[in-house]
Amino acid sequence: EISHDMRNYLMSVREGFVDEICMQVPQDAKCAEAVSAYVSRCMSYGCLKVDSVRYPMDAEYQPLVLPNPYQLDAAFTLFRNSESNPSKNVIKRPWMRFRNGGSHGDYHNFLVSLISVSIIREPDATDVEYLVSKLLFMATLYYKT
């Protein structure tokens, strides 16, 4: 349902969505390319998956995997403006304080879905590297909120 609502919102603003996300990003940042790839995936109901970027970018050894910042911003923008956002939904708004012990159920599901779909263990990663990448991926989402 969340991905469906995000896609519906995207369909209503599709023309200017990439420009809106990349508005304050330097031109050489490849933002438009990354967000366009995300938009294409979202139109096929893949709104809960963001690509990963390996860091450090210029190094041969890249143990750290984090979400693509431009796609992550696009995903949060779509969720924030979609009907799945409890504060935007007329039916869910009055109940959002009481649902799931005070947590926002749809928002929690959005975050958990982003994590479970987007974090993929790299074949060459050790257990420690995978754990650190997963924790930092989750910390990035937490920071984004």
3D architecture notes:
The protein has 145 residues and is mainly alpha-helical. The protein has one domain. The protein is built from five helices and two strands; from the N terminus they run H-H-E-E-H-H-H. Strand 1 (52-55) and strand 2 (64-67) form a beta hairpin. The longest helix is centred in the first third of the chain and has 21 residues, at 2-22. Pfam families: RAP-1.
* Number of domain modules: 1
Mean pLDDT: 86
Order of helices and strands: HHEEHHH
| Rg, alpha carbons | 16 Å
Overall spatial form: globular
Strand content: 5-15%
Quickly count the helices. 5
Going across the biggest sheet, name each strand in turn: 1-2
Q: Considering DSSP H and I runs of 4 or more, what fraction of the residues is helical?
A: 40-55%
What's the main sheet like?
Answer: 2 strands, antiparallel
Distance between the termini: 21 Å
Unreliable spans are: none
Total E-strand runs: 2
Strand-pairing-aware structural class: mainly alpha
What's this model, at a glance?
The protein has 145 residues and is mainly alpha-helical. The chain has helices spanning 2-22, 31-43, 69-81, 105-118, 127-144, and strands at residues 52-55, 64-67.
Primary descriptors:
145 residues; mainly alpha; two-stranded antiparallel sheet; 5 helices; 2 strands; 54% helix; globular
